Amino acid sequence: MSRFIVALAAPLLISALGLGTASPASALDEVNVSTGATIAGPGLAVHGHDVVAYFTTGKPTLGSDKFAVAYDGGTYRFASQSNLDAFKADSAKYAPAYGGFCAYGVAVDKKFDGDPRYWKIVDGKLYLNLNADIAATWNKDIPGNIAKAEGNWPKIHAVAAAKL
Q1: pLDDT digits over 2-11, tens only?
Q2: Which residues are paired to 45 by β-bridges?
Q3: Which residues contact 14 (CB under 8 A, 6 or more apart)?
């Protein structure tokens, strides 16, 4: 009898834990998050870095789980209450372009991880890139790459990275 219960319960447990087959695209596919839920909600956006700090201090700064908010499919952390408040007041201003995926990757129809160390603010928007080499390539034609990414993002934003 106990084997029967385990046999019936296992698929339910696998489904509840999200370990089953791939599901259709969701809002989480639109934001580059580190795996695992956090106290504030879904996985960490920008690898836990404070997106407001890029605008105020001009450098990547790790946020704290004391100052966190779930927004648009990711959990954003901040280094201070004032940065959290600024984000809450104008989230669209501070949230990274393309959900924090690599800006050059989106320009070439892909979703690569956006590394918080390789960033640039262009016309008031935060862009992340995969690594130093990709950032150098992106920097060679920022306006052109942004134009390509803007054209591609509507087609790929809800597609899982692994399917691109």
Answers
A1: 333 333 333 3
A2: 33
A3: 20
